[in-house]
Every structure is written in C-alpha cells, then in structure tokens.
C-alpha cells in the first residue's frame, strides 16, 4: 500500500427534517388541535482516530462524505428520526484543516478520539409548538436547517516521540533498526526511505519506552518543496526530541547547519525542540578524527554521541541519553497544543442599511420606484429565521413580527430613520414597515 499523508475531501452533514403542519383528526371531532411533530436532526460528519493504520491511503477513492438527513415530523406529535452520523476513520496523528479558512478543525492525537467536522442541521418544529392564547390553530411549521458543508484537507503527522533527521544515506534506517524493533528496508544509496517508519525502543525493564520515527532524507530546498522533504517535514512537528543523524565521513558541521536551516524555513519553532546529534559511521574513520569532529559539532550547542549503527557502537549510550533528555509528554503536549476552531455558530451583529438608489453593480437592493425607501437588514439571525418559515410565510407573519419585535429589530429600524410605509428587506423577502406608535395615534 502506498504511503499517503495528505488528502482533500468534501463533507456534507445531514439537513434537519421539516416540522409537520398537521391537525388532529378523529371520529366525532371535526376540528382537532394542532399536532404536528418536530423534524429530526441531520447527521454529523465525525473524524475518529484509530490505531493500526499508518496512511490515509485507505480513504482514496472516496472523496465525498454525506450524512443522512433528519426525517420529517408527522402528525399526532410524532417526531422525525435523527439522521445517522457518518464516521471517517483516520490514523492517529491526523490534523484536519478547513480548506477555505485554513483553520484547524480537528487534531486527533489519541486512539478513539473523535471530532465533529461538519454539524448536522437541527430539525424544524411542528405547528403544535406555536399555539398561544391568541393563536390556537397555527397553520405553519418550521423548516429544518441545512447541514454544514466543508472542503477539508487531512494531513497525517506521525505520532512519534523521537524523530531521526538527516540527509539521504546518513544511516537513519540502519540506526532505527539497530536501536528498535523496526525492520526498515536498508540499502547503500540515497533516498532509500520513501515513507516514515516507526520503531519502538525499550529500556531493560520494558516499563519505559519511546517510539522513534525515521523521517525520509531531507535535501537542500526541502522547505521550498524540493525533493521528498516538504512531504515529510510535517512529521517532525509531532516529535518531542530530534536526533540529527550525521555521517562522519562527509561534512557533519555543514550538514547540521543546513538541516537546521531547512527546519527553520519550514517551522521556526522546530529548533525549540530538545535535540542531540548522533555522529554515525565512526567505524569508517580513525578515532582521533571522530573525536575532532565531535568537538567541532559540540560548539554548536547540542550533545554529540559517536555511534555506529553497523557495528552497534555507542547505541546503549544513545538510548539512555534519549530516555534522560525526553521532555515530559503532558507538558510537551500543552506547549504544542493546536488551537482548534470550535463548532459554534456565532450570529452576526444586527446592521440596518438604507438604500435610496440601486447599486451600480453587484448584489444589493434594487428599488422599483423613485419614491420607494428600502431598508436592508443583515445579521442578528433574522435572515436564517425567515428562511425557516419561507414555505408558510404569510401564515407565520404574525408570529415572526412578534419575534422581530422582541429581538429589537423594529427599534433598530426606527432609530435608523425608518418611516411608516417603508420597505424592509430581509434576505429574499420584503415587508412593509409599520410603526405601532404611529398606528395608535
């Protein structure tokens, strides 16, 4: 199976079911009361983190996910059933971004963790809800709300405690195999590792362990998308400790500086991670030369350990040093927690705009007569409210008028300068403004 760590999908939560406009019918009862039930809620789209999956490849071929709509309400106060939720199972370490806003909407770092990424619309209320002392037979009901739709980018960032970072053929795969229980493909040529590989390293008592990831070889320009580097640099961001694997036979100091420059270009905070240097392949050079290189690397401020993955030299010391330097998991998680966009719908503040002349271009109020005064209302939830009664607008006008008055719309129009007979436009609907005080005088 090919490794895939980025995938774009489209999700659509279920629409809420419409409320029922119904009246009780029974033998010997000519005019029964309203008994319309509520519509069901639309299903959600939910991401769920599972273990045992190391790639997003299993989702390829299905890029669109649609949850079930809520059922319509029925007579005799029968409520429509809720739509079924849709679960999208992804590997632990998956982060979801809203494609349009770029904001993080989910970050799944534990097995079983779930996050709603598209919320189903609530169902509409049946006409039985709208009875009052003056409205005993409401001939309207509320429509369901459409479910949330989103274009989502899924990014897999491996959950590993330690990340091995280095240029191709530096010996990362060999080091991982020698220190852990991983069995990566190893060969003596660059770009062997095409996918991140995880291994588990344990202490002698087996009670303490950490996971180590072999990040594919970085080349210069990786942060700009060259080679394989950019595809996998994101995996480094999850690690609590970085191990720079350097080949002693090349230019270790120059390579370390270049690697740090690439990490900085991709994400400057990566250099804040705890890190050390594994100076590899020391069996290929004289001991004095290896020590000289070790001293030169130490001037850059990181601990340096001489190792040989091939001969097994220095590996016990490397493992123990990593255990001692490993940051506390909870403190690290708090420091690196992503800010997740909440699933909260915030109503826009009410704004009332007067349009005397039609706009030159674009969307707006187009007046139909020279003397017509049109007031355009935005925000405050009024447009959404009217849409939910659009099918029964004439019958629901009295109810909506009372709602708008209680929510301050009439006062806002009056303060803005609206006069008796002016036209008020809310969404696609138009109404005549009526001033109650003028009507009473």
TrEMBL record:
<protein>
    <recommendedName>
        <fullName>GTPase Obg</fullName>
        <ecNumber>3.6.5.-</ecNumber>
    </recommendedName>
</protein>
<feature type="binding site">
    <location>
        <begin position="308"/>
        <end position="310"/>
    </location>
    <ligand>
        <name>GTP</name>
    </ligand>
</feature>
<feature type="binding site">
    <location>
        <begin position="166"/>
        <end position="173"/>
    </location>
    <ligand>
        <name>GTP</name>
    </ligand>
</feature>
<dbReference type="InterPro" id="IPR006169">
    <property type="entry name" value="GTP1_OBG_dom"/>
</dbReference>
<keyword id="KW-0963">Cytoplasm</keyword>
<feature type="domain" description="OBG-type G">
    <location>
        <begin position="160"/>
        <end position="327"/>
    </location>
</feature>
<dbReference type="InterPro" id="IPR006074">
    <property type="entry name" value="GTP1-OBG_CS"/>
</dbReference>
<dbReference type="InterPro" id="IPR031167">
    <property type="entry name" value="G_OBG"/>
</dbReference>
<dbReference type="InterPro" id="IPR027417">
    <property type="entry name" value="P-loop_NTPase"/>
</dbReference>
<dbReference type="InterPro" id="IPR014100">
    <property type="entry name" value="GTP-bd_Obg/CgtA"/>
</dbReference>
<comment type="similarity">
    <text>Belongs to the TRAFAC class OBG-HflX-like GTPase superfamily. OBG GTPase family.</text>
</comment>
<dbReference type="Pfam" id="PF01018">
    <property type="entry name" value="GTP1_OBG"/>
</dbReference>
<feature type="domain" description="Obg">
    <location>
        <begin position="1"/>
        <end position="159"/>
    </location>
</feature>
<feature type="binding site">
    <location>
        <position position="193"/>
    </location>
    <ligand>
        <name>Mg(2+)</name>
    </ligand>
</feature>
<dbReference type="Pfam" id="PF01926">
    <property type="entry name" value="MMR_HSR1"/>
</dbReference>
<dbReference type="InterPro" id="IPR036726">
    <property type="entry name" value="GTP1_OBG_dom_sf"/>
</dbReference>
<feature type="binding site">
    <location>
        <begin position="214"/>
        <end position="217"/>
    </location>
    <ligand>
        <name>GTP</name>
    </ligand>
</feature>
<dbReference type="GO" id="GO:0005525">
    <property type="term" value="F:GTP binding"/>
</dbReference>
<keyword id="KW-0547">Nucleotide-binding</keyword>
<dbReference type="GO" id="GO:0042254">
    <property type="term" value="P:ribosome biogenesis"/>
</dbReference>
<comment type="function">
    <text>An essential GTPase which binds GTP, GDP and possibly (p)ppGpp with moderate affinity, with high nucleotide exchange rates and a fairly low GTP hydrolysis rate. Plays a role in control of the cell cycle, stress response, ribosome biogenesis and in those bacteria that undergo differentiation, in morphogenesis control.</text>
</comment>
<dbReference type="GO" id="GO:0000287">
    <property type="term" value="F:magnesium ion binding"/>
</dbReference>
<dbReference type="InterPro" id="IPR036346">
    <property type="entry name" value="GTP-bd_prot_GTP1/OBG_C_sf"/>
</dbReference>
<keyword id="KW-0460">Magnesium</keyword>
<feature type="binding site">
    <location>
        <begin position="280"/>
        <end position="283"/>
    </location>
    <ligand>
        <name>GTP</name>
    </ligand>
</feature>
<comment type="subunit">
    <text>Monomer.</text>
</comment>
<dbReference type="GO" id="GO:0003924">
    <property type="term" value="F:GTPase activity"/>
</dbReference>
<dbReference type="Pfam" id="PF09269">
    <property type="entry name" value="DUF1967"/>
</dbReference>
<dbReference type="GO" id="GO:0005737">
    <property type="term" value="C:cytoplasm"/>
</dbReference>
<dbReference type="InterPro" id="IPR005225">
    <property type="entry name" value="Small_GTP-bd"/>
</dbReference>
<dbReference type="InterPro" id="IPR015349">
    <property type="entry name" value="OCT_dom"/>
</dbReference>
<feature type="binding site">
    <location>
        <begin position="191"/>
        <end position="195"/>
    </location>
    <ligand>
        <name>GTP</name>
    </ligand>
</feature>
<dbReference type="InterPro" id="IPR006073">
    <property type="entry name" value="GTP-bd"/>
</dbReference>
<keyword id="KW-0342">GTP-binding</keyword>
<keyword id="KW-0378">Hydrolase</keyword>
<feature type="domain" description="OCT">
    <location>
        <begin position="352"/>
        <end position="435"/>
    </location>
</feature>
<feature type="binding site">
    <location>
        <position position="173"/>
    </location>
    <ligand>
        <name>Mg(2+)</name>
    </ligand>
</feature>
<keyword id="KW-0479">Metal-binding</keyword>
<dbReference type="InterPro" id="IPR045086">
    <property type="entry name" value="OBG_GTPase"/>
</dbReference>
């Amino acid at each position: 199976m090919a490794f895939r760590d980025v995938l774009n999908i489209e999700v659509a939560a279920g629409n809420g079911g419409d409320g029922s406009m119904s009246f009780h019918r029974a033998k010997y009862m000519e005019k029964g009361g309203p008994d319309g039930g509520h519509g069901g809620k639309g299903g959600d789209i939910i991401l769920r983190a599972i273990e045992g999956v190391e790639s997003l490849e299993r989702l390829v071929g299905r890029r669109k996910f649609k949850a079930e709509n809520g059922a319509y309400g029925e007579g005799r106060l029968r409520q429509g059933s809720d739509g079924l939720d849709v679960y999208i199972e992804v590997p632990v370490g998956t982060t979801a971004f809203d494609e349009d806003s770029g904001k993080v909407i989910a970050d799944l770092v534990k097995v079983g963790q779930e996050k709603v990424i598209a919320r189903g619309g609530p169902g509409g209320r049946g006409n039985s809800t709208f009875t009052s002392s003056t409205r005993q037979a409401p001939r309207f009901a509320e429509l369901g709300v459409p479910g949330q739709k989103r274009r989502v980018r899924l990014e897999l960032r491996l959950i590993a405690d330690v990340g091995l970072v280095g240029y191709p053929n530096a010996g990362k795969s060999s080091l991982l195999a020698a220190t852990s229980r991983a069995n990566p493909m190893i060969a003596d040529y660059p770009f062997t590792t095409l996918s991140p590989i995880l291994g588990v390293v344990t202490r002698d008592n087996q009670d303490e362990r950490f996971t180590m990831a072999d990040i594919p070889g970085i080349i210069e320009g990786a942060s700009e998308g060259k080679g394989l580097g950019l595809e996998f640099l994101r995996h480094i961001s999850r690690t609590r400790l970085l191990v720079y694997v350097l080949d002693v036979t090349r230019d270790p100091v120059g390579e370390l500086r270049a690697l740090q420059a690439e990490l900085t270009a991709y994400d400057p905070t990566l250099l804040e991670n705890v890190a050390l240097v594994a100076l590899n392949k020391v069996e290929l050079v004289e001991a004095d030369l290896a020590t000289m290189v070790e001293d030169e690397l130490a001037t850059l401020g990181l601990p340096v350990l001489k190792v040989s993955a091939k001969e097994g030299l220095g590996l016990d010391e490397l493992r123990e040093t990593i255990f001692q330097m490993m940051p506390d998991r909870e403190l690290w998680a708090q420091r690196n927690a992503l800010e997740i966009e909440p699933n909260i719908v915030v109503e826009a503040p009410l704004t009332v705009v007067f349009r005397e002349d039609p706009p030159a271009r674009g969307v707006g109020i187009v007046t139909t007569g020279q003397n017509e005064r049109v007031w355009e209302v935005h925000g405050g939830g009024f447009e959404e409210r009217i849409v939910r009664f659009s099918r029964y607008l004439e019958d629901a006008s009295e109810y909506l008028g009372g709602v708008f008055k209680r929510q301050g719309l009439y006062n806002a129009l009056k303060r803005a300068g609206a006069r008796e007979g002016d036209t008020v436009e809310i969404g696609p609907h138009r109404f005549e403004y009526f001033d109650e005080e003028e009507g009473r005088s």
